[in-house]
Amino acid sequence: NTLGVLYILEAGESVQSIEDLSGKEILATGQGAVPEFVLSKLLADNNVDASVSFKAEHSELATLAASGQADLVMLPEPFVTTVLSKRADMRVALDLTQVWNENQTAQGGEGDLAMGCLAVSRSFAEEYPEALAAFLADYEISTEFANENPADTGELVAKYEIMADAGLATAAIPNCYITMIAGDDMKPVLEPLLETLLAANPQSIGGKLPGDDFYYKVND
């Protein structure tokens, strides 16, 4: 449901490419999870020697960045937009979704950086296929609406208390890569990330790559 939402924020102009992170200290979140594994792979694949320290919570790191106590950070949306709204000298230095895609292309591979998905139990999918198909159809319409109408979507985000500030939600939506990828299109997108997780921490995905039955397909 979303592609990558990770960004490198910098107070300054020194970071224009992933290579520019060499020799720098990055504060990040997501230790032991997808954010750490993605960043580690991108740094290693591009021969970047950077120091990475982790904070436990996105909100903690966002507060440090917004208050001027951290000048080079990796954060996900919507915390990125929140920080930028509070600190004028900070900017998006790198969109890690773009860096990931460039990395994949350079290695002759494919697959966007996917960081959000819809999951359903096998028993529910088998018992209620019509309901699930209807939900997925509505979900695709919803993703299109969000991308085409960020202001209206931002109001809904605030109304349902997902975020308190509709304006910040509106600003964050274009950076969230909200999408709908289904059926046979899922595996080529997701498998490179799963391979990264398998290499970094096999138990994070159950010790092996999932089979084709991991990817749900609506019956015709």
Write the layout of secondary structure elements.
Layout (H helix, E strand, L loop, with lengths): L1 E2 L2 E6 L13 E4 L5 H12 L5 E4 L3 H9 L5 E5 L2 H8 L3 E6 H11 L7 E3 L5 H6 L1 H20 L1 H10 L6 H7 L13 H15 L20
Parallel strand pairs: 3-4
Antiparallel strand pairs: 1-7, 2-5, 2-6
Using DSSP, what is the number of strands? 7
Number of domains: 2
Give the C-level CATH assignment of the largest domain. Answer: Alpha Beta
Q: What does the largest sheet look like?
A: 3 strands, antiparallel
Give the proportion of residues in helices: 40-55%
**What structural class is derived from the secondary structure elements?**
alpha+beta
Please name the fourth-level CATH homologous superfamily of the largest domain.
Answer: Periplasmic binding protein-like II
Instruction: Please give the count of helices.
Output: 9
Shape: globular
Strand content: 5-15%
Based on the structure given, which CATH architecture of the largest domain is correct?
Answer: 3-Layer(aba) Sandwich
Rounded mean pLDDT score: 95
Radius of gyration: 18 Å
Summarize the helix and strand pattern as letters. Answer: EEEHEHEHEHEHHHHH
* CATH fold descriptor of the largest domain: D-Maltodextrin-Binding Protein, domain 2
- List the quaternary state of the chains: single chain
Distance between the termini: 22 Å
Spans of at least 5 consecutive residues whose pLDDT stays below 50 are none
Biggest sheet, strands in spatial order? 5-2-6
